[in-house]
Every structure is written in structure tokens, then in C-alpha cells.
Amino acid sequence: MCRSFEEIKVTVGSQPQHESRFEYFRDHEGNVAPEVHTALRQAKSLIVDGMRFLDRAAPVLLERRRNVWWTSWFFERRMRGIAMSVWAAVFETGTPIPFLGFEAAAAGTQTIADSLLEDAIRMISVDAYRLATIVDAYASCIKALQIRMWLDASSRHLLGSRKSRMQDRLKNALVEVQKALQRRHRPDFGEGEKPLDGRDEIDPDALCYINKVVKREGFVDDPAGL
């Protein structure tokens, strides 16, 4: 469902392209089907359990000072959990939006997703794949917020500025992914530029994923996109 919705281009206040994709989740009267609500409630329970596990893992990572790989793994899983939380509430109206709404972060302040993205960019220098997974999850957060705003008219005028700032952060993050990929091939840590040897070349599948993330999120500049 999430990936299908992420491909829908929406301009808040207008009809989205591929609106027929929403029909799969509606009954014959145009309302969200009861089985969809049931499935989403079950998904919410699993997401809450997952986020609680990550909350328990956070102090362990901090206390034992795990390396960047483990920390960035935590960032990606937590970011994905935030995105899934919003997706699970996408058909709701008039209820708080998990993690991204003003109930979770006051206007003009960073959301948890913003902080995770900022920390990831600061910590990750050459692991373009790991950074791409975090940026991909952050983009999913934005798309979930946008679809929720389109479906819930009461949130449109309130959260428009937050979505715009998140879009700007996403643009900058995509640039950082490309920079990390460049450093991966020719890192320079003060000892002159020296290409990595063959053993350290990035995996072809990982490189394909990175390129797809950058390409897939490229429509962020399109006003009809994110």
C-alpha cells in the first residue's frame, strides 16, 4: 500500500493522479472498507511494538557506543517506523498525526524525523547506501503526510509549512547522498585523494538501490509531486 501511494502525484487542493488506486481500499459506498480499518489497526499494533523495541535499543547503543553502522541502522529503522505510523493513520480524519503533527512537535520546531535525518547526514561520510535508506524512509514520511493532508482537509492549512520545510530537507539530503557516493569512490581524509581498491568497491545491487532512490525522489522539484 505504502509504495503504491508513494507513486501518486498530488497537489493539495486538487484531484491526485491515479486516484483509482484509492478505490481498492473503499467499499461500494466510497467509504474506507471495514477490513482496511481492521488491517490498519493490526498494523498499528505491530508498529507500536517495533517502536518500543527501538526505544529500548537506543540507550544500549548510546551506552556501549556502537559504531556508525549500528547507529545508522537504528536511524533507518526508527525513520521507517515513523513513516509506517503515519501511513497506518492515513485514512483518519481529525486525529493527531503521529510524530509529524503539531501534537508531536510544535510549529517551527524539528520533528523526530528531521532530527534523525540531520544526525544521519552529520555521521555518515562514505556509506552512501546506508544514508540512502534513511533518506528513502524520510521521503516516505513526507509522502504519507501529504496523502493524509489530501484526505483530511482539516490538516491542509495547518501542516503545509511543515511539509514544505521537510521537502527542502529532502532536497538537501539527496545532494548529501550523491556526495557520499563520490567520497566512497575517492575519499579524501587529509592524506590526498586515493581511490579505494577493488575489495572496497560498492556492491552493484547497493549502487542500483542508491540510484533508484535519487531518481525516484527526483520529482520533489515538481510542484505536483511531494
Account of the 3D structure:
It is a single chain. Helices cover 62% and strands 0% of the residues. The longest helix has 31 residues, at 34-64. The protein contains eight helices and no strands. The chain has helices at residues 2-6, 20-23, 34-64, 68-88, 112-123, 128-151, 156-185, 204-216. Residues 221-226 have low confidence and may be disordered. The protein is mainly alpha-helical and 226 residues long. Helix 3 packs antiparallel against helix 4, helix 4 (68-88) runs antiparallel to helix 5 and helix 5 (112-123) runs antiparallel to helix 6 (128-151).
Quick structural summary:
The protein is mostly helical and 226 residues long. The protein has 8 helices and no strands. Helix 4 (68-88) packs parallel to helix 6 (128-151), helix 5 (112-123) runs antiparallel to helix 6 (128-151) and helix 6 (128-151) packs antiparallel against helix 7 (156-185).
Give a quick set of tags describing it:
mainly alpha
What order do the helices and strands come in, and which of them pair?
Blueprint: H1 2-6, H2 20-23, H3 34-64, H4 68-88, H5 112-123, H6 128-151, H7 156-185, H8 204-216
Helix pairs in contact: 3-4, 4-5, 4-6, 5-6, 6-7, 6-8
